[in-house]
Write a structure and sequence with these properties.
single chain, alpha+beta, CBS-domain, Phosphatase 2c, domain 1, 2 domains, five-stranded antiparallel sheet
Length: 421
């Protein structure tokens, strides 16, 4: 009779690769070991369990195919009962065999195996499972090794995802580099806040200078993290296309052109008019944005906004002026295809300061009442530090936000731009 089980030394040696390798299929969890046949008696099984204390389960194989599994604890407890040894030791081992153990093929993925183990309940967690090769007995596996393999696979997937996101962050920052460099060359006193909630951001910005002045765009796309970052790439491409057709001097026209492109490309159709499309089709993604055109020679600012306002502080002003944009997001299903955005034009006396914040700044929860940081605190911070250079204002504003946030989680990407002319 061929009867071996998972011995202490041999079993540990066989399991060693499992603890270090990244396993994708159940075959990698199979610990090769012999099994008993129905011809084996309970006395044979008892001898195996006594000789090999680490063995938790003993497979039963007939004609090379697994038919059951003997659980060590159940078997030994039965043998400890009065007269059970005298009655059962000479009988076939199938008397204490689980006739319906979990049997999985070696090609089963670790993910599918984990589902089967969970579906089988506590039995497979305690007894382990039998691994087969086309129905032929191959070895046994333990729930512990299965859980370890699942954990390793999950860690590997997380590592690959994070590596991809980290590299996506490099790409996103590289795309913004020309705008940052142009901003540094053009604006002697300015600050830029760009803090993704996750590694990559759904907020983005664009800056380009010419002989007459510059165009500054700050936009906040739907979502954050990877989905938001994808949207910034789409919006950046549409913005450059709009610049080619509209030019820099019409902020409202630029927003209108981007809106049309987004709605056309992404199928963002108003669902109230569902008769024109199949039910459930289309998307509803877009952005809030502030488009700012500054004419340095005339000292004027033209602004058009989709939800995002700009804040203006004149050199002799005692209050921060708020210039609101239109209440229509860019590209969303509810925004009409022909929606127009208003151009606001203001004069900028020398020493005027202009600010724009995405809603991740003003909507951040915190404080004793866990309410938003708010527009009022933002304006008060600007007034409090108005005499300081813009980089120092940046530090002060961020410090105030972080102190208010306290132990709260960051709610959204945080971006802001400030400059003094």
């Amino acid at each position: 009779m061929n009867h071996a089980s998972v011995a202490s030394n041999d079993g540990d040696a066989a399991a060693a690769p499992i603890r270090s390798a990244l396993i994708h299929q159940t075959a990698g969890l199979a610990i090769p070991c012999d099994a008993v046949t129905p011809a084996a008696t309970n006395k044979d099984v008892f001898a195996i369990f006594e000789a090999q204390p680490q063995t938790v389960g003993l497979p039963v194989v007939e004609d090379g195919c697994p038919i059951g599994l003997i659980n060590r604890n159940i078997f030994m407890q039965s043998m400890a009962r009065p007269f059970h040894r005298e009655v059962f030791l000479g009988k076939s081992c199938i008397a204490f065999m689980d006739k319906a153990p979990l049997i999985v093929d070696k090609t089963t993925s670790i993910q599918d195996l984990s589902f089967q183990v969970l579906a089988s309940g506590q039995k497979a967690m305690n007894d382990g499972f039998i691994v087969s090769d086309g129905g032929r007995y191959l070895g046994i596996g333990t729930a512990q090794d299965m859980l370890r393999a699942v954990s390793n696979l999950q860690a590997e997937k997380n590592r690959l995802v994070m590596e991809s996101i980290d590299y996506a962050s490099v790409i996103q920052q590289s795309l913004a580099r020309p705008s940052r460099e142009a901003m540094r060359k053009t604006l002697a006193d300015h600050f830029m806040i760009w803090e993704p909630r996750d590694v990559v951001s759904g907020d983005f910005y664009y800056f380009d200078a010419d002989a007459d002045g510059f165009l500054l765009v700050l936009f906040d796309c739907t979502g954050h993290g990877v989905p938001g970052a994808f949207m910034t790439l789409i919006m950046s491409a549409f913005l450059r296309s709009a610049l080619n057709s509209v030019g820099r001097d019409d902020p409202g026209g630029l927003i209108q052109a981007v809106n049309r492109q987004v709605k056309t490309a992404m199928g963002n159709i108003d669902h109230r008019h569902a008769a024109t499309q199949d039910e459930g089709e289309g998307a509803d993604d877009g952005m809030d944005a502030a488009f700012i055109r500054v004419d340095s020679r005339r000292r004027t600012l033209s602004y058009a906004g989709a939800h995002l306002p700009i804040l203006l502080l004149r050199p002799d002003g005692e209050q921060v002026e708020v210039i609101d944009g239109d209440r229509h997001g860019v590209g969303y299903a509810a925004t009409p295809m022909d929606q127009a955005w208003t151009n606001h034009q203001v004069e900028l006396p020398e020493g005027s300061s202009v600010y724009c914040f995405t809603d991740g700044f003003v909507d951040q929860l915190g404080g004793d009442k866990r309410i938003a940081f708010g527009k009022r605190r933002t304006r008060e911070g600007i007034l409090r530090h108005r005499r300081q250079p813009m980089p120092e204002q940046r530090t002060a504003l961020l410090a105030a936000l972080q102190a208010y946030q306290g132990a709260e989680q960051r709610k959204d990407d945080v971006s802001a731009i400030g400059f003094r002319l």
